[in-house]
């Protein structure tokens, strides 16, 4: 067997032990780990809170043509809803879930009054095979608090 151009002990022997016991290297490793965690933090929070903000929802609608599904009652829907929202009551969702979007890879944004029903509905829609399902965090209440437009019987408000 031929000789290696470098001693193996450099990687498996004293070098690796010295690297991990040197205080400066430990500080650099800690900084790298903390930096990575801080970069992931917004994504972790987004998953934990269970939905998109009004601004994030607007970007999803405008940039990716998300289909907006309003799950509230007909009465509440007529009082005001997101522009271009389709209306399917929460109680009817299970029966009509196949009719939401023709292409199941298109993003779907679910909206209710407070965000509670939308979180429940998201599971139903995902189980039906839709690849990208989002919930408007805080529902229509949060949308209006953010100063976003609502449509009332064909008129933007």
Describe the fold and architecture.
This protein is α/β, with parallel strands linked by helices and 157 residues long. It folds into two domains: 9-48; 50-156, 3-Layer(aba) Sandwich (Oxidized Rhodanese, domain 1). It has helices at residues 9-12, 14-21, 23-49, 54-64, 74-79, 93-96, 116-127, 139-145; strands at residues 67-70, 86-87, 108-111, 133-135, 151-152, 155-156. The longest helix has 27 residues, at 23-49. The chain starts with 8 loop residues before the first helix and ends with a strand. 23% of the residues are buried.
Features:
157 residues; alpha/beta; Oxidized Rhodanese, domain 1; two-stranded antiparallel ribbon; elongated; Rhodanese-like_dom; transmembrane helix
What's the CATH first level of the largest domain?
Alpha Beta
> Can you tell me the CATH superfamily of the largest domain?
Rhodanese-like domain
Q: Assign the structural class, choosing from mainly alpha, mainly beta, alpha/beta, alpha+beta, or little secondary structure.
A: alpha/beta
Put simply, the count of helices is 8
Radius of gyration over C-alpha positions, nearest whole angstrom: 25 Å
- Percentage of β-strand residues: 5-15%
Q: Name the helicity range.
A: 40-55%
Number of E strands: 6
Poorly predicted spans: none
Largest sheet: 4 strands, parallel
How many structural domains can be distinguished in the coordinates?
2
CATH topology-level name of the largest domain: Oxidized Rhodanese, domain 1
Spatial strand sequence of the major β-sheet? 2-1-3-4
- H and E string: HHHHEHEHEHEHEE
How does the overall form come out from the CA principal axes?
Answer: elongated
Q: Span between N and C termini?
A: 82 Å
Name the average pLDDT: 84
From the 3D coordinates, which CATH architecture of the largest domain would you assign? 3-Layer(aba) Sandwich
């Amino acid at each position: 067997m031929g000789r290696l151009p470098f001693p193996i002990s450099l990687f498996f022997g004293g070098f690796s032990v010295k690297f991990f016991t040197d205080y400066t290297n430990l500080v650099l490793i800690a900084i790298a780990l903390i930096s990575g965690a801080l970069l992931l933090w917004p994504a972790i929070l987004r998953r934990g809170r269970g939905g998109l903000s009004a601004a994030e929802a607007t970007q999803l609608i405008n940039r990716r043509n998300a289909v907006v599904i309003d799950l509230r009652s007909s009465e509440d829907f007529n009082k005001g809803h997101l522009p271009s929202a389709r209306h399917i009551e929460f109680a009817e969702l299970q029966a009509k879930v196949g009719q939401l979007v023709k292409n199941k890879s298109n993003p779907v944004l679910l909206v209710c009054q407070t965000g509670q029903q939308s979180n429940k509905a998201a599971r139903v829609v995902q189980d039906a095979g839709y690849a990208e399902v989002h919930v408007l965090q805080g529902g229509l209440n949060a949308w209006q608090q953010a100063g976003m437009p609502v449509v009332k019987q064909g008129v933007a408000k």
